[in-house]
Amino acid sequence: MQTDIETVTIRQITPEDIDGIIKIEEASYGAHHWSKESFLNEINNELARYYALFNAEGVLAGYAGCWHILEEAHITTIAISPDYRRRKYSEALLQQVINDCYEEKIKYITLEVRVSNEPAINLYSKYGFTSFGTRKGYYQNNNEDALIMWTKNIFFDEFKNKYEQIVKELEGKIKVK
What we know:
The chain has 5 helices and 8 strands. Strands 6-7-5-4-3-2-1-8 form an 8-stranded mixed beta sheet. A hairpin with a 2-residue loop joins strand 3 and strand 4. It has a single domain, classed as Aminopeptidase. The protein has about 180 residues and is of the alpha+beta class. It is globular, with a radius of gyration of 16 Å.
């Protein structure tokens, strides 16, 4: 049985994308989401890398962002519109972040994720992130703890071989232009 491969486009976020991103923020995070000004500041921050994902119809379906600081990248956000979840879009965005880290010789990637966000934790674990503790009361809206996750050095064979295998698997489901 052959499945259709979905084509998406990932590119850097522009100021024109922010209103659509705010809609995804509101749908994903409710009243406690980033402001338009926060995103505008982030896309003008030379340490930051922010990406928008558009589906085959050209609809903004998700975004991701991270900071590159010396040998580390800190993923600040990955969000997919509720209308477009479970289509491997998060994986495509995560791969964009990881590929950028390879290009810029960044060795380690870290992030915080809600301890209750099992789908995200499972995704990050699949990509080689492991937990290194929690930040108590990290999320202001409900005082929920955040799980701190890190990769090992992404240039080590242990990470790189697993990553290359996952990339090949995703290529059979989604194509990034």
